[in-house]
Amino acid sequence: MQQFLNVTLTGLGQGAVYAAFALALVLIWRSTRVVNFAQGAMAMFTTYLALTVIEGGQSYWVGLVVALVAGLVLGAVIERLVIRPVEGGPELNAVIVTLGLFVALQALAAILFGSTFRSFPAPFDLRGFTVGGVNIAFTPNSIYIIVAVVVVMLALVALFRFTDLGLKMRAAAFSQEVSRLLGVPVGRMLTLGWALAAGVGSLSGLLIAGGSLVFPAYMDAVIVYGFVAAVLGGLDSPAGAVVGGLTIGLLLSYVSGYLGSELVALAALAILVAVLLVRPQGLFARTAARRV
Amino acid sequence: MSAGTLEISGLTTSYGPVTALDTVDITAERGQVTAVLGANGAGKSTLLRTISGLVRPAAGQVLLDGTDLTHAPAEAIARAGIAHVPEGRGVITELTVEENLRLGAMLGASRRRTERGLAQVYEMFPPLAQRRRHDAHVLSGGERQMLVIGRALLSGPDVLLLDEPSLGLAPRIVAQIFGLLRDLVDSDGVTVLLVEQNARSALSIADVGVVLNLGRVVARDAAAALAADDGLRHAYLGF
Ligand SMILES: Nc1ncnc2c1ncn2[C@@H]1O[C@H](COP(=O)(O)OP(=O)(O)O)[C@@H](O)[C@H]1O
Ligand SMILES: [Mg+2]
């Protein structure tokens, strides 16, 4: 029971981060039909920027703001300069471009920040809570991670559901031509979509780094788990990404806790294959909702 | 010149080697319905798509009240007061009925005007009011047509471009929608360019008509005169 509680809470914390990362992938996929393989590298880069600021004497919170703002800017710049030119071309072009970015950003980070392991501070205590006299793996910092993700998700929901800007962004994602005919500046909406997605991705990169080590490839595993979570949720559905992220976080935590941590990557792959075989449209695809 | 005069001159549009529109001149006036008729492939949709900036002309001009919109981007043309209801209707099915309508109302309208406009559209089209919170994919063909016309009207356009609004609709619904359109033009004084293959219905509410064939204007006259010209009807209009 103790073990189960431990593993479940750990899984939820991890799942929250995967959910944020999957959400970043989904926001980009549904507006520009690009799977952004560079998402992890972008988050890694902005986390290094935060680390630089923090090591320069600023607080964690200044670092957080720097990472988020840098993420927004990086997303917008990449959409404008790198993605826009290949838009409308063969789909493979965009894939190659994001893979190229992934490699380039990792190389650049190694040059600028070095490729050694560096520890990243956590804003809250990393010692587990005590329940009934026993220490568990759930920490004050885990609570911070979950709260941070929930706050960002609620902000996004509010933006998309309740504001004119959010409505225009959704319209531009669903139908560019009709949106233009209604006066929506589609190009600007797509840039903004990439910026927001990269901001959310940066947050997940920063949360994962907290209390742990960063190096240029530290996000590589998260890209895989986040992608599996996004596919599980249907790639098109922000709610699906969140549920998918939590599900993957829990499943992988159970695998790690009961079967052995060396099996986690394999389990992620197995889940991906299972989803693609059994329900390729994902749990939350609209087409599926329409058929029932 | 009254607001809402659309002057098209020498408009030529090509898709690669295919010239879909060949030096077309049309002037549409405020308070009138101008029907653009012709067989499938005549260039009717290309005409509207060129006016609204979705495709670029090779030559010619589009003027709205004297302002040159020929090379403006589609978003800017929409904001200038030209509302294009595309062929196949252009409902965004992933959004709710009300979200679709609000998009139309966003072109600079104040909140208060938006709410009043929405109320008017719901009054005009009661089926939309019943389904305002549903995703638009639940709507029938006729309701979708109501939605896109309502959405276009909410933007407060000077010019309304309609591409085959009768397509796939039952005759009774077509009559109802065309009737509403006529009332609108008479009361609000908008300019309507109505593209139709269904020439008989279109001419019944139009003031003037233009017939396109292979991208060229082959006839233009008062709607009643076109409808009465047997030779023309048999050659180009199919009734
Ligand atoms: N996107 C396109 N690419 C190439 N040719 C096109 C395209 N759209 C239309 N055409 C051609 O242009 C001509 C006019 O088409 P269109 O404007 O759709 O006619 P209509 O609306 O009167 O049926 C046709 O020969 C059609 O095949
Ligand atoms: Mg057509």
From TrEMBL, chain A:
Q: Which organism is it from?
A: Pseudonocardia xinjiangensis
The UniProt family comment states: Belongs to the binding-protein-dependent transport system permease family. LivHM subfamily.
Listed A to Z, the keywords are: Amino-acid transport, Cell membrane, Membrane, Transmembrane, Transmembrane helix, Transport
Q: Does the keyword Membrane apply?
A: yes
Q: Which residues cross the membrane?
A: 12-29, 36-54, 60-82, 94-117, 137-160, 189-209, 215-232, 239-257, 263-284
Kindly report the protein's main subcellular placement as a broad class.
membrane
Q: Which cellular compartments is it found in?
A: Cell membrane
The domain of life is: Bacteria
User: Which InterPro entries does the record match to this protein?
Assistant: ABC_transp_permease (IPR001851), BCAA_transport_permease (IPR052157)
| One Pfam family cited in the UniProt record for this chain | BPD_transp_2
Topology with respect to the bilayer: Multi-pass membrane protein
Q: What is this protein called?
A: Branched-chain amino acid ABC transporter permease
Automatic annotation (TrEMBL), chain B:
Q: Please indicate which superkingdom the organism of origin belongs to.
A: Bacteria
Q: Where is the ABC transporter domain?
A: 6-239
UniProt keywords (A-Z) are: Amino-acid transport, ATP-binding, Nucleotide-binding, Transport
* Molecular functions (GO terms): ATP binding
Family the entry assigns: Belongs to the ABC transporter superfamily.
Record PANTHER family: HIGH-AFFINITY BRANCHED-CHAIN AMINO ACID TRANSPORT ATP-BINDING PROTEIN LIVF (PTHR43820)
Protein name (Swiss-Prot/TrEMBL): ABC transporter ATP-binding protein
